[in-house]
Amino acid sequence: MKMTSAVTSKAILVPTSELDLDHVCVSGQTFRWQRDEDGWWMTPVGCAGTVMRVHRQDEKLIIESRGPLAESAARSYFNFAVSMKEMRGHWERSGEGDLVRAIDNTPGLRIARQDPLECLFSFLCSSAAPIHRIRRSVDGMSRELGENLGSWHGVELFAFPDLESLSSAAKSDLDRLGLGFRGRYIIASARYILAQGGRAWLDRLRGCSYSEAKAELMKLPGVGEKVADCVCLFSLDKHEAVPIDVHIARVARRQFDQCESFESVTPRAYAAMSGCFRERYGEYAGWAQQYFFYEEIDRRGIWDQELKKHRPKMSGH
DNA sequence: GCTTAACCTGGACGC
DNA sequence: GCGTCCAGGTTAAGC
């Protein structure tokens, strides 16, 4: 256990329009944030045993960490190099009224920059699974295979399992966690990455182009276009990646004439839909997608009960 | 190149 | 209480 790690605290100035933790932490891009007994948001970061705890105080973001977490790493996690204010202004000047409305409905929603390993294996759990089930699967994997980090402010914490633990997991253990057919993809993908040289192979993808990184990810068992795009967008700095799931496909059919006729998300439909997003919203099309995704989930009222309790500002669902 | 079924599981829903 | 459907997808087989 790493309960003895020193706790460090820092505060950084972040305009309220740039970050709303309630939106970011439950927006279906990351699955390990929890509220602690004081109402702060908390998450283990990657496999190294570091825990980040955050709270907003007016224009300040208070960040506490147990374990090494430089201020630059915290800034990087929330992608503060990207200014939502500037992007919103750009899209408003371009006449993208629907997108500006979606942004204004969820101010402070951002794309997080997650640890690639945690992000990849989280989305390997996501095939045909609702968000609460993905959360439970990721939590179960961490409890079963990750290091026990003890508890902090009433929250029991586990590091995300490393590749060795994932590759040597028993299929029966993953079955017990309810992973179903996704379990074999997790073990096989961990083994594939180890055979490529370990997590350095994954980290190297941050320096590759979007198309290269996506093609490499799709060599992994269980990783198709959608999962690859999620990993590209949420951890590999590929802001133009547009994951097309059933909800975004619905948005694409409404927004783009050429997508109207696609009844299911075939490879051709996937390419057309994501291409339309990129053509219309440019190099940050993935961010635009996230606002529409959030709006679509909210519109359809399919946030589950567990997520709703984390979303005090949202109403109507 | 496209469609379809199978893969696992559990919660929601209708009866 | 029970049966059926479906969910933020991928894969392989068949056409």
Task: Characterise the protein shown here.
- Residues 308-317 have low confidence and may be disordered.
- By secondary structure, this protein is of the alpha+beta class.
- The chain has a domain at 239-303: Endonuclease Iii, domain 2, CATH 1.10.1670.
- Helix 5 (116-124) packs antiparallel against helix 12.
- The protein has helices at 21-25, 71-77, 84-93, 97-105, 116-124, 131-145, 163-167, 171-176, 182-195, 199-204, 210-217, 225-235, 246-255, 267-281, 285-300, 305-309, and strands at 7-13, 34-35, 41-45, 50-57, 60-66, 148-152, 155-158.
- The structure holds a DNA duplex (15 and 15 nucleotides).
What's the CATH C level of the domain at 239-303? Mainly Alpha
Coarse structural class:
alpha+beta
Q: What's the architecture of the domain at 239-303, going by CATH?
A: Orthogonal Bundle
Low-pLDDT regions: 308-317
Q: What does the radius of gyration come to?
A: 19 Å
- The number of distinct β-strands equals 7
Number of helices: 16
Strand order, main sheet: write it out: 1-5-4-3-2
Distance between the termini: 40 Å
User: Beta fraction of the residues?
Assistant: 5-15%
Largest sheet: 5 strands, antiparallel
| Secondary-structure element pattern, one letter each | EHEEEEHHHHHEEHHHHHHHHHH
Helix content: 40-55%
The overall pLDDT, averaged over residues, is 89
The CATH topology assignment of the domain at 239-303 is: Endonuclease Iii, domain 2
